[in-house]
Amino acid sequence: MFSKLVVVVCLALAVCANEEAFKTFKVKFQKNYSNEDEHQVRYEIFNNNLQTIQEHNAKYNQGLVSWYMAVNQFTDMTPEEFRTTILAAQPANLSQWGTTEQHVAAVEAPASIDWRTQNLVTGVKNQGSCGSCWTFSAVGTLEGAYAKAHGELLSFSEQELVDCCTDASGYNGAGCNGGVIQSAIDYVRDHGIVLESSYAYEAVQKSCRQSGSVFTVKGYTEIKANNEDDLKNAVGNVGPVAVAVNANGFQNYGGGVYDDSGCSHSINHGVLAVGYADDYWIVKNSWGASWGESGYIKMKMGYNICAIASQACYPNV
């Protein structure tokens, strides 16, 4: 009888703890649900994800895995919702516009580099519920290239690319439904790009309001496909490099070195490699500073994890 009572009390305490965690989550991430039914569904999804997080972190605390999970803005989403809402499948047709060059590793890469310390990386941004990651990846490498060439770090407009770099305008982009990073750079080659302050991000595709330009490029250089040595050389010697990855497993990432040998190579998310250490990449994401390590993820180096070296590029200034 006593043992049964203990079990009941423990279960009740666990439920109360989860309810309190959900309340904290809703306040922190400003979650508002349309009705009580949706609230209950989201609570149940939150609980399932919370259990996954706790089980994974128990392994982390035992030294069995190299990264830990955390509650974030995606904890009330199922993995399927996360993939379809936040991620965007790479279009199969990669446009080539005749401005592609191949990276040449003429100079040895430094042992480590972090371009954030050299003022080549803007603050972490947030794409919201819009599959516009490709524009953030492209803009990130453009910002780094401009800063390195001109000695000034500017924040460029992702919204201009969302609105204007489209299939209808002759490029390979579908706004919030994905696009090709290389095509975004080609748009900037043809039309230039303005500052974020004059064409603010809205997380929804609207009509193109392109007017004027702050920065243009000559084209882009690609890294040899699936070659991490070439990627390391480019990041080490050139600056922040746009990369595409499979981010299915990023939903609950909290910190540490992400190491998933089973990660798919079917890319669905654009990010920015801003540096590396001995055995991991330093990658800037576009999900806000509350996700991961203040908006960043460390990714294991050495076996092309999540296809990080599959489609990497940077602009030619």
Written description of the protein model:
It is globular, with a radius of gyration of 21 Å. With 317 residues, it is α+β, with helices and mostly antiparallel strands. 33% of the residues lie in helices and 14% in strands. Strands 1, 3, 5, 6, 7, 8 and 9 form a seven-stranded mixed β-sheet that branches. A three-stranded mixed β-sheet has the order 2-4-10. Helix 4 packs across helix 6. The longest helix has 27 residues, at 2-28. It has two domains: 2-65, Helix Hairpins; 83-316, Cysteine proteinases (Cathepsin B, Chain A, Alpha-Beta Complex). The relative contact order is 0.16.
How would you describe this structure in keywords?
single chain, alpha+beta, Helix Hairpins, Cathepsin B, Chain A, 2 domains, seven-stranded mixed sheet, 7 helices, disulfide bond, Pept_his_AS, cysteine-type peptidase activity, Prot_inhib_I29
List the helices and strands and how they pair.
Layout: H1 2-28, H2 36-61, E1 67-69, H3 79-85, E2 100-102, E3 113-114, H4 133-150, H5 158-164, H6 181-191, E4 219-222, H7 228-237, E5 241-245, E6 253-258, E7 269-276, E8 280-284, E9 296-300, E10 313-316
Parallel strand pairs: 2-4, 6-9
Antiparallel strand pairs: 1-6, 3-7, 4-10, 5-7, 7-8, 8-9
Number of domains: 2
- The CATH architecture classification of the largest domain is Alpha-Beta Complex
Q: Regions with pLDDT < 50 over 5+ consecutive residues?
A: 4-13, 92-98
Overall mean pLDDT score?
Answer: 92
- The rounded distance between the terminal residues' Cα atoms is 76 Å
User: Under the CATH scheme, which class of the largest domain?
Assistant: Alpha Beta
Cα radius of gyration in angstroms: 21 Å
What proportion strand? 5-15%
Structural class: alpha+beta
The total of helices stands at 7
Please name the fourth-level CATH homologous superfamily of the largest domain. Answer: Cysteine proteinases
Tell me the series of helices and strands, N- to C-terminal: HHEHEEHHHEHEEEEEE
- Assign the CATH topology of the largest domain: Cathepsin B, Chain A
How would you sum up the major sheet?
7 strands, mixed
Relative helix content: 25-40%
Give the number of DSSP strands.
10
What characteristic shape results from the CA principal axes? globular
Keywords: Disulfide bond, Hydrolase, Protease, Signal, Thiol protease, Zymogen
Signal peptide: 1-17
Pfam families: Inhibitor_I29, Peptidase_C1
Family: Belongs to the peptidase C1 family.
